[in-house]
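Two records follow; treat each independently.
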Amino acid sequence: KLVDIWLVPVIASVLIPLAAYTGLRFGAKVSNRLAHIGSLLILLYPAQTFIVTTPHNLANVFLLTTIFLSLLSLSNKNLVFPALMIALASAATHPLSGLLALLFILIINNKNKFVSALFFFGMAISTTVLFGIYFFLQGKALPDLYNIIANKNSFLQLFATPYYVNLDKVSWPFELIYTYQWAIVLCIVVVALLGAWKKRAQVFWYLMAPGALLLNTFLTSTLVVVPELSSFEQIQYAERLLHITPFFLLPLFVLGYFSVCKLVKHRLGSIGMAGLFSGTAVCLTVSLYLTYPQLNPKVFFPGFNVTAADVAVSDWIHDTHPSKTPYVVL
């Protein structure tokens, strides 16, 4: 039981900072002090899948570890081995994230641009192919291209306000917190572009990978239809892909943050740096809050894979079949 509870949180808290420091220090060639800071800046993106132990969450930990370790190959292609080993571990743990990790390593360490482009295309269709193999082995019909037209709104629903969010205005601290939830993604994109500016050729595939994942998310939410699953359960595969899409930009985001620090220090001096670091500290606190399930005037979020219907059924069982013995509703 302890392993089930703590495996992913412990591995994530040890492996990811170590990989971030190693990749930034010896791959991106930043100073020792900045590499330590960079390993902390990752937490600005709420790591919601790193708090619960599941095979997919463990594969996500390995995926992010792979991405940061892949920075080593920027300075020396012979240093690809650690990232490759972690990518293989990710693929063996869960193919949804693991196959993406493996394909990404093959892309950035391939000298043939055409072959890299093929692997990139593989990142875009990997989930569809996995489901196609599953349907074939089960003797079911393969995905029909007409599904894309019929289910086109499913992709847009991924960006809609979730059912557990109160649409009415509440007190301003909560409004700011949930503004941060979507604004941080835009911030990561913009700052990552700044971080990639001087190394555009070297980090090209880091910038392109999120595009492949967005296409993968689109195909998974529209083309793939699993009759045995409800629409809510099925869309969760696309939601998982959407959540890990910013992972590939995080190394560039960290480098971009360092560029912002230089600019602020040059223009505004120590006062500007104090303001930047104070704002970053507040954002880290907000991100930590968003990492865990929330219950407040704005949001009732009991956790992934739990819907309002699940909570209603649990309440009904509790009210109609009272028991003094503790029990779990599966």
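The next record belongs to a different protein.
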Amino acid sequence: QRALDLFAVAARHGNTEGMFEDVKPMIKNGVLEALEFFERSVITQDGRGAADLAQFLEKEDPGKARGLYAAAVEAGAGGLTCTKLADLLRDEDPARALELYERAIKEGDEFSAPIRCAKMIMDRDPDRTLDLLQLAGKAGNYTELSDVLMPLIADGSERAMQLYEKYVIATDELDGDSRIQDLATYLHDKNPHKAVELYKRLFHTDLKGEAMYSYGILIQKESPGKAKEAFRMAIAAGNEQYATCALARLIEDENPAMAIELFERSLAVKYDSDVVNELGIVRASKDLDLAKDTFVEAMEAGDKLCAPCNLAHLLIPDDPNRAADLYLSI
């Protein structure tokens, strides 16, 4: 209590600089008087004090935090305080939140506010969105920037790609290749053409095994020959599990014996019931009994859907009763 009395004297004389850091441990320890003191003696005089306390209360009492942020903004606090208030208002009052984000940017928050603002307007104002993202990039907000740029790149924005190159890939001095891979993975289904370009950039990096496999997946329908070569290079680069299966699927009609070897090679790395069933199907063209045994093994390993169905299909000519029982068990 003596400490609070001394803080109160300082507050009455306008000396509130850094006071929240001194009072905060008391609030954490449940000293109710500390919270009341801070609200009474500091918040009424110093907008920053209100913002400090609001940040402290955000999770426990968001309603109170919002009121405190509003008081701080009214008292003249700008920048990050406006951003914090906008974050709490974004769902229920998006127009007011947008105003606050714009004010925050003008008053110094070029790190967080531009990203938040961009997310709110990206569907209706792509040019302004990219201006905001460029501002955030210059301020060093690379992580959030990446998340917002990716959808724009998927839609074909060349400027968004330029920003990603400049502020995400180039700024990650330790792992820029991984940022290329992140984008390629995101674009894999959304913009395959762009994803292919990005995968090619990784062919001479430590990520070549995954990149060549993913590249092969995207081109296998249009260029099966190139895809086979990509899968072979991916296998050579260490992608034993996925690239071997992908190559096996491409060659199983023309070279079932090699496909069987590849499926077995993949299973040696990691068991996968889907791959076991694919192996059984290819084996059926070479050795019916071995194929049946393969499906039985899959069932014993817990496959209660595909393996019984595949085994039943093979049993129809010689053992229709057992085949029927298997179909009924599914």
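Discussion point: Residues 8 and 101 are 34 Å apart (CA to CA). How would you locate this feature using only the token line?
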